[in-house]
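Dear colleagues,

For the upcoming journal club I promised to circulate an example of a predicted protein-ligand complex. I picked one with (R)-mevalonate because it came up in last month's discussion. The inputs are reproduced below in full, followed by the predicted structure.
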Amino acid sequence: QASTEGAASGKVILFGEHAVVYGSPAIAAGLDRGARAVVTRQPSGPSTLRLGDGTVVADASSASDLGRAFSALLEVAPAIPPVHVEARCDLPPGGGLGSSAALAVSIARAAEALARSGETRPEEDAAIEARVLARAAAWERIFHGNPSGIDATAAAQGGIFRFTRAEGARPITPRHDLVLCVGSTGHPSSTRTTVELIASQHAKDPVLVKRSIDAITSIVGNAVLAIEAGDMRALGDLMNMNQLVLSGLFVSTSELEELCALARSAGALGAKLTGGGGGGCVIALVPPSFRSDGTRDEAREAESAARILDAWRGAESH
Ligand code: MEV
């Protein structure tokens, strides 16, 4: 095979971002949108990656984060031979929607497929997927410093799941589908910066930060129960509480707060930032509507979602 393809999804973190870095659980869900990569074998090095209008060379001492991340991904053992990668991402960069992890997983999947050229047995699939995650982790360390792995896990498997650093992902079965609106501040943010901000608060006052992490841990535990029980009102309240704790950790901004407030006044059951914060996106929970026979009324839910999106459109930042 001269060239192979890989795909991966974006994600939203429903609960527990940042606390997950310190070993607490978080809940994430995969998005339909994501990244796609085509990897072509090259006769000789160096490996190159084209993303949008730019091309970077895989180089461990590159001035570009992307060049270093690409190199780190290829160098995880067994190293990938020289390749050219054409990658595309349908998620806003720095939006908190997992664009970086989705790119990493799509490139790693395509590169693994190329390197093994269809010669693997099904029992090797788990080992290959573990290597894809290891390659994505090496990439994410360049961008994020200390990634928990939740973004790469969501990119690789999609669905809705609870995640901890120690135990990885455990799928959650929602009693009812969750309908969420995603709104962007329009300002990209750096997860590395907000993760480091909390790390420096933690270094100065570990007890205070631990209190917030403990609060988030109990919010996440209750959120799993609310999702499984289909208690959307409780889930919305828990989103608002999680947002409050995140703003106490200084990773919210006035724009994120405004988008959350607008969503709540437009009928959302709850709203919070998603991902690293400091900019990026918010998520808002759309109230479920049921017909008299108990089935979901999707048309009414779409109207409720449209009210939230309209409220965001009316705001200066959206
Ligand atoms: C970023 O999507 C989620 C954070 O918790 C960082 C991480 O888990 O690696 C902020």
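Two points we might discuss: The chain has two domains: 3-171, 180-314. Residues 206-229 form the longest helix (24 residues).

See you all on Thursday,
B. R.
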